[in-house]
Amino acid sequence: MFRLFALALCCLGVARAAAADLPLPPPGAHLDGLTAIPITVIEPHESKPFKPVEVTYKGYPAIPLLDHLLGEGWRAPEALVAFEAKDGYLSMIPSSRLLQYVAYLVYANAQGSDFSIETPPLNHRVSLGPWYLVWDNVVQSELRADGATYWPYQITRVGVVDRARLARLMPPMLPERYKEGAQLTLKYCLSCHQLNGVGGSKMPIDLGQWAAGQSFASMATWVLDPSGKNPLTSMPPLAPERPAAERQRLARQIYGYLRAVGALNK
Predict the structure, then answer these.
(1) Helix-helix angle 216-224:244-264, to 10 degrees
(2) Which domains does the chain have, with CATH numbers?
(3) How confident is the chain (266 residues) per 10-residue block, as mean pLDDT?
(4) Which of 62, 128, 167, 172 has its CA 20 to 30 A from that of 154?
């Protein structure tokens, strides 16, 4: 069955794949030549400052699994691999990051516990399956600074982001100085929201249009302390593991970029 699935991927043509348009096989499917292994991580969704929580999951190293599913086209320089969740959350991860750091696609808790996490605002337990992307942040401790960024769960589809679509984030008339803001927006905002048709469908408001009506103070309140703005929101704060001054700088970069894109679209 899985060989037929792989053949179907070849027929689709990975180079032409739009964001997250290829279904992942169920965890029980036979993956030729790949062996599931345990991986222990510091679980960012469960850990608190100075109180890390280690969890051991079971799954496959991401690189050979992505090669198996997508061929090697996803490894191209500046390519983005998109992992789409059941609820429309879309994590677009640079191929360079996946090649630099050790990641795994996991499907179970190796110790037999529930394959789930608590999620805000009401701390309900949510299943992580069918697939969850985790990183070896025990050995690669620098990854802890990004918290749960790039840790998508409930993944059902994977693909390579179309370059033409991605180019919409830097319209021709936009000055080059906004490039960092574009990269930060892609990393921290477009998993749930959208900009010029790029991004997830969990909360698909267009951020350029939204930012056009916001002061920096109003926008910063939302991104730096979303639960302070709305106690029932599930929106995570921007880079909470980083120092306050850096978080302010990131928010200003994102705000300036969104306002510039919004002005071009008027």
Answers:
(1) 120
(2) 2-161 (no CATH), 167-264 (2.60.40.420)
(3) 32 38 83 89 93 96 94 94 96 98 97 92 91 98 96 97 93 96 97 96 95 94 93 92 96 98 90
(4) 167
Please say whether the beta carbons of 41 and 136 come within 8 A.
yes
**Would you tell me the crossing angle of helices 244-264 and 179-188 to the nearest 10 degrees?**
110
Q: Which helix (H) or strand (E) holds 74?
A: none
Beta carbons of 257 and 177 less than 8 angstroms apart: no
- Nearest-Å Rg of the Cα atoms of the chain is 19
Cα atoms in the Cβ-side hemisphere of radius 13 Å centred on 12: 20
